[in-house]
Amino acid sequence: SQTIHQWPATLVQPVGSPLSLECTVEGTSNPNLYWYRQAAGRGLQLLFYSVGIGQISSEVPQNLSASRPQDRQFILSSKKLLLSDSGFYLCAWSVMTHSNQPQHFGDGTRLSIL
Amino acid sequence: AQSVTQLDSHVSVSEGTPVLLRCNYSSSYSPSLFWYVQHPNKGLQLLLKYTSAATLVKGINGFEAEFKKSETSFHLTKPSAHMSDAAEYFCVVSEEAGGFKTIFGAGTRLFVKA
Questions:
Q1: Fold classified for A3-113
Q2: Where are the domains of chain A?
Q3: In total, how many domains does chain B have?
Q4: Taking CB atoms and an 8 Å limit, are B104 and A97 in contact across chains?
């Protein structure tokens, strides 16, 4: 069966520090991969999605970047964090190119910027 | 244009009473529709999905939803609420139109009173 792992579960970082959040998927090949941010009490905002190694699409301009160095690995990064980067970050995967297939989510990373 | 509206930001029910979470959508094509549940500090878990088969869809934990094309609705129901159902619920629409796009609703917070 397929599983998705995100780490760390929680992270407290000072303003201006770098960030690296990692997400890996097991049990499937060529998945679509997604990074979402969820602000407190709000819905999901799609940040990035990827349909293959090295292929990243950005949905909103921001202080963050994403990379996909391997088929089942998706990394969210920042060189210098801002206070507004605080939130709950979720990684998800889905079967490639079928809208009738759901996305499957990791347990998320709670990021607090001080 | 594709959109999804969850008509209630908060719903409160007593344990043992029925649950109704309302979702309306718009789509230019034949959409796929999903309901997810999110417990605090967790990722989203798929409850059920509609993908142009039976209009009444049964999901996990006793939830079901009915796709009504004439009303463009996909409401989530459960006959009897349990305390463990207290969570955030998201309605999601996905369609293929020269590439596919997924839109998440803003979420409905379900409170269950003892």
A1: Immunoglobulin-like (2.60.40)
A2: 3-113
A3: 1
A4: no
Assign residue B65 the CATH number of its domain: 2.60.40.10
User: What is the CB neighbour count within 10 angstroms for residue B105?
Assistant: 24
Chain A positions touching B52 (Cβ under 8 A) are 100
Q: Is A106 within 8 Å of chain B by CB?
A: yes
Q: What is the pLDDT along chain A (114 residues), one digit of tens a residue?
A: 889 999 999 999 999 999 999 999 999 999 999 999 998 767 888 999 999 999 999 887 678 999 999 999 999 999 999 999 999 999 999 987 666 789 999 999 999 999
Query: At B1, is the pLDDT very low, low, confident or very high (cuts 50, 70, 90)?
Result: low
> Phi and psi at residue A14, in whole multiples of 5°?
-80, 155
Q: Domain span at residue B26? A: 3-113
